Amino acid sequence: MTDQLERYLLHDKSARIQSVDLSHAWQTGLAHQQLPSVVQALLGELTAAAALLANNLKFDGALILQIQGDGPLSLLVAECDANLTIRATATLQNEAVIHKDASLQELVNQHGDGRFIVVLDPRNEAKGMQPYQGIVNLEGDSIAEMLQNYLKTSEQLDSRLCLAANDERAVGLLLQRLPTQGGHDTPTESAAETWETLNHLVATVKHQELLETPARRLLRQLFWEQELFALEPVTLQWFCPCSRKRVAEMLKMLGQAEVQEIEEEQGEIEVVCNFCGQPYVFDSIDLHSLFTDASSLPPSDDPTVH
Known about the structure:
Elements: E1 4-10, E2 15-22, H1 24-30, H2 37-54, E3 61-68, E4 73-81, E5 85-92, H3 104-108, E6 115-122, E7 132-136, H4 143-154, E8 159-165, E9 170-177, H5 191-203, H6 207-212, H7 215-222, E10 228-230, E11 234-235, E12 237-238, H8 244-254, H9 256-266, E13 269-272, E14 279-282, H10 284-290
Helix pairs in contact: 8-9
């Protein structure tokens, strides 16, 4: 199953296991973003991580993972909200040269000034919830390693995170140790021994194996000796709130004189969403209708419909 997040508890509730497998949603997100393959992979890993971490939050809002780079890659952002809708984007420095084998540190922390932050953004601040920002140490060779360290130091959660992505899939596997029930170990096997066993199994997963093996099959291969309790899987989807209607409203706010001046220079106006890269094209007929009869605007969000 693709575009799904699967969740399991160990039989003694000493650990939880989650896997996320994005394909259609991920390809939708990449449709209008022309990125080097190494940047695509990093953005996909960040997106998979956002989905895995957001699923464990119990609040109405969004979890945002953001890397502000000081190298050729200036920004990576992935967001997942309480409805498990995702979106992500990357921004490169002007005329950046990015080698296919460039490391994460070379791309975002070249001079030691990169920043990696976790933001919890509540949807309704009126209910007393305020945005929270956590700092992820940019030490390590991968996004997974950095987030593992963050979860250990900031959330006091022992975790093992595996992430992989290409232009077709963004996938992830998260193992987390949970507090023991009643403050003591289980009767049959200590929580520490159980954790070591699970941690060792997940550590054997290779990057290509994660990309090429369906998530459910991989979990069966890894934990076939473990008694797991399966929770209901949840579906994720790509969503960016940009729309043709919003762009039309923005153009109307510019005013008829300015819009007409741009039209005379360019013949039409193309507006590209800063987040997902979706283009919206307005020809002379569309632009004229903005300031005459709004109902004549094409109803479709398809950027090719004029």
